[in-house]
Amino acid sequence: MPIQTNKRQRTCIACGATQQKGAFHRIVRTAEGAAAFDPTGRAAGRGAYVCTGACLAAAKKTRKLERALRCKVTDQDYERLAREIALVEAPGRNEE
């Protein structure tokens, strides 16, 4: 009989909610030290998870994303991340 394993839970850096990896949006620190949206969840680099665009805004306000990624996140990075997350969260898109 196969051993049943538990999937690791991820935690939103802004609100502290814990869920499966697929329920979150992953933001990764690139090799250049910038923050980038990771739609696949498999990009190399240090990553952080947020639930929604609202949690991204809260993470910006409290600088939690900068602490989690251990790098400086510019306002342009936050704007780009918010746009990319909004596209993924847009109504009518299929959930994976």
From TrEMBL:
Residues 10-82 form the YlxR domain. NCBIfam families: RNA_bind_RnpM. This is YlxR family protein. It comes from Adlercreutzia muris.
